[in-house]
Amino acid sequence: MYKSVIRPYLFKKDPEQAHYLTFNWLKKVSAIPGVPAMLRAKFLVEDPRLEREVFGIKFKNPVGLAAGLDKDANAFQELSNLGFGFIEIGTITPKPQDGNPKKRLFRLIEDSGIINRMGFNNGGVEAAVKRLQKNKNVLIGGNIGKNKITPNEDAVNDYLICFDALFDVVDYFVVNVSSPNTPNLRALQDKEPLMHLLQTLQNKNFTKAKAKPILLKIAPDLTNEQLLDIIDIVATTKIAGVIATNTTISRDGLISKNQSEIGGLSGKPLTKRATEVIKFLSDNSNKAFPIIGVGGIHSVEDALEKFEAGASLIQLYTGFIYEGPQLIKDINQALLK
Q1: 181 is an annotated ligand-binding site residue
Q2: Which pTM does this prediction carry?
Q3: 179 is catalytic
Q4: For the segment 212-249, what is each residue's pLDDT rounded down to a tens digit?
Q5: Ordered domains of the chain (ranges, CATH)
């Protein structure tokens, strides 16, 4: 029904309008008594064999929702009914910000991709915390970033504010320094500033009664030398793992007319590169840390390739938009086989 009825309807609308329409519809439908249970019965695959213990957390299944879809923690409860094992919210910044001017979200239908230049649009960390305090047993990752107006030399403070505010309402953290849509943000991926940022967060983490896993989300556009730096940084700071990968600025091999739009590209064009990055990190670190694989997962085969390359868990974003919740169920059922 999704691909034959719902997707054609949504794809006639502006992508950002379609996003909010979908969230409103999902929340209204889920408020009807019995509907959440029906959705879980249709899409959620529950089996002890799907459980994964990764960086000290038990995941009911290894298929999660990537950050960027539920930026403000508005629909994590409803989205969890579609079969996800975990939901990553954000990217959250300390203060609310509007993000970049519209139009800033583009479908590349011929390429099964999306280009976005949203720019960390969100309502700020305090508003997200209030919603997350109402969480009923959804495993949550908190993806954190800096405000656009914060200069890079002060970026650490923004990450610390989000870390402290979200600490009691998320299960793990993701440090996002790899979005191409905040000016100069990717400069924080350089070895020295990144080491400083992650070590500062870890030092803060270890002052807590029980530390929480901190992961780093990296760009697919890093060179092999930079990826070796990432391995070294993970070993030095002892963060919990890496999410590979964020969106790409590459436009290789695209056929869609709007391929020249500025922003980060996600979806099928990213499938191969994301898998390469996962395999490189896994092989060159001798599987020293967990990797969450994300990027161009549009089929069961794409998902299995990510696991075979070395991913412990995977996340969907663009594949979920193009394929619908049946993809989550199909992947989990394939893992059981």
Answers
A1: yes
A2: 0.97
A3: yes
A4: 999 999 999 999 999 999 999 999 999 999 999 999 99
A5: 2-336 (3.20.20.70)
